[in-house]
Design goal:
This protein is an all-alpha fold. It has two domains: about 30-105 and about 145-175, no CATH class; about 190-350, no CATH class. About 85% of the residues lie in helices and about 0% in strands. It has helices at about 1-25, 25-50, 55-110, 120-130, 135-145, 150-170, 175-185, 190-230, 235-240, 250-265, 270-295, 305-315, 320-345, 345-350. The model is unreliable at about 135-140 (pLDDT under 50).
Length: about 350
Amino acid sequence: MTLSRFAVVQWLSVAVVLALLLYLLSGILTPFVAAAILAYICNPLVQRLCKWNVPRALAVVLVMAGLLLLFAALLLIMLPLLQKETSLFITRLPEWIDAARANFLPRLQQWFGAGFQIDSEAIKNILVTHWQSAGGVAAKVLPWLGSSGGAIVAVLINLLLIPLAMFYLLRDWNSLIAQIDHLIPRHWYAKVSEIATEVDGILAEFLRGQISVMLLMSVYYVLVLWLVGLEFALPIGIVAGMLVFVPYLGMVTGLVLATLAAAMQFTSFSSVILVWAVFGAGQLIEGMFITPWLVGERVGLHPLVVIFSLLAFGQLFGFFGVLLALPLAAILLVTLRHVKAWYLTSSMYQKP
């Protein structure tokens, strides 16, 4: 019994040390965590290609190329749309200034007793001139790049590390799993394998649930923005819905694009507020109902546990802690289930 307790203390000490290292190195581990998530998601596709006698390295390259094409497609949808909306927004801005001058300038003059003059035509000329000369922005930004070069280089290195680490993880996935399998103590092997199988099943359900959330939110944004009358409802709704797997990114990106589209299309500010309400309601529905329902129930987590996990892991590990919140909570759930089953059959519980 003493040896057993000592072993438990040893393993708890190892777990505490590993958790502390993860916390201290969370900034460095960010690209590797992202690569591991993507590798886990893409590994079934690689395995399927390997069953068709495709060499594993080639299968990894094909899957990563498909992922890159998907990312490029999103950029091709977003960038031209953003450029067109920004250009038209700048053209429409003087009209907004004229409306503000007609509606609010008399009140300002009445309240403060001073004369305010707004030359909307001059502002329009300035905006158009600066927009057309945007090619010279790089020269103005260079001094800032020099002072912030270290941070920018670090971000670029992290971005390059993600596909590099993902490639090696996918290529050597089977051997890495075999090495981890070999390190498991033999007298714990059956139980650890059982837990790992349950965790893998829960994570698979998590991914299916997340895909369902993405599709449902895409339908929501496209449909509701179309009902509002937004011209670019289809591309904006698809982009906003597909990016909801990154917390807040889909809502923020869609909100910016939809605001620019509404500003250039509608003449009243109330229509812009209506578009904002669409994204505000979408964020509430997705965070409070859809994600806990489609993801939380699939992994067996109560909605309050899902919300707490997002907040807790985000606080501890930052941005990618939010991404890992639900999978880690699911792993913890499986572990606690087995600990509970062991406790209910132990002498500690049954002893009178």
